[in-house]
Structures are given as structure tokens and as C-alpha cells.
Specification:
GMP Synthetase, Chain A, domain 3, 6-stranded mixed beta sheet, 3 helices, 6 strands, 45% strand, globular
Length: 139
């Protein structure tokens, strides 16, 4: 049996003073390349779960940026998730690279957003893995 690594990425484009999402694209890293991710009724259940986790992390990032007066231009969310042979999640790394069109987050704001991201419903309803890391980068 083997372990189960997943790497997903979603790219969001925004407009307006309300951080409206204009466009989203999702990709999965497989065969040494980023490929378009299409979720359907025939998608593996665990892949749907991993994608749900990525979207939930973005949703809480997006909402809390708005609450803190940060205007988003573009965001790339990368999720690396590693499950063991029994499908128990051992590692989660979320990296968000956000391009801002307004606002300047201080460390307290970044820490607040990271804390809120850990409260997304998918995060709350899974056993926290031994390694769970969130990285936020703003430019």
C-alpha cells in the first residue's frame, strides 16, 4: 500500500470594493504538471473532500480580509495534503499568495486571519493532523 499525497491550487480574480470574485480556476498537480481540476459525480470522494478543504480555507480568508478592510485583486491558494495508507491526514500546508489593491495588513491582522481560517467548517470537523501550517503572503 502507498501513501496519498494531494496538491491542489485555485486562482481567484476579484473586483470592486466588496472583493467580488470574478473568476476561479482550480488545478491538481499530477504527472509532474498542473492540470485542470474538474469535479463531477465520478470524482473520488477523498479528492472532493480535499477540494472542499481548499475552498473552505479560501472562503474564510476572503471573508476575513473583507472584515479587515483588505481589498483583493488576485489570490492563489495552494494546498498540499498528505494522507497515510489508511487515509488519515498527516500533513496539511496551505499557502495563500494574495495581491492587494488596497489595505496593508500588519502582523496582528495576519495572525487573526490565520486563526479564523482554522475555524472553517471543514477544518473544525476533521481531526487536526500532526502537521498543519498556514502561510499568508501579501503583495
Amino acid at each position: 500500500m502507498s501513501d496519498h499525497p494531494f496538491q491542489l491550487r485555485a486562482v481567484f480574480d476579484y473586483s470592486g470594493d466588496d472583493n467580488n470574485i470574478d473568476q476561479i480556476s482550480a488545478q491538481i498537480f499530477s504527472d509532474s504538471n498542473w492540470n485542470s481540476l474538474e469535479i463531477s459525480n465520478s470524482s473520488p470522494g477523498f479528492l472532493i473532500f480535499v477540494y472542499s478543504f481548499l475552498i473552505c480555507q479560501h472562503t474564510y480568508f476572503h471573508a476575513n480580509c473583507g472584515e479587515r478592510g483588505l481589498l483583493l485583486e488576485a489570490v492563489v491558494v495552494e494546498l498540499s495534503l498528505h494522507a497515510d495508507n489508511d487515509w488519515k491526514i498527516q500533513q496539511v500546508i496551505v499557502v495563500i499568495d494574495a495581491t492587494l489593491s488596497g489595505g496593508n495588513p500588519d502582523q496582528a491582522t495576519i495572525d487573526y486571519i490565520k486563526g479564523r481560517m482554522r475555524q472553517c467548517p471543514v477544518s473544525v470537523n476533521m481531526q487536526e493532523p500532526p502537521h498543519y501550517q498556514i502561510e499568508l503572503q501579501f503583495s
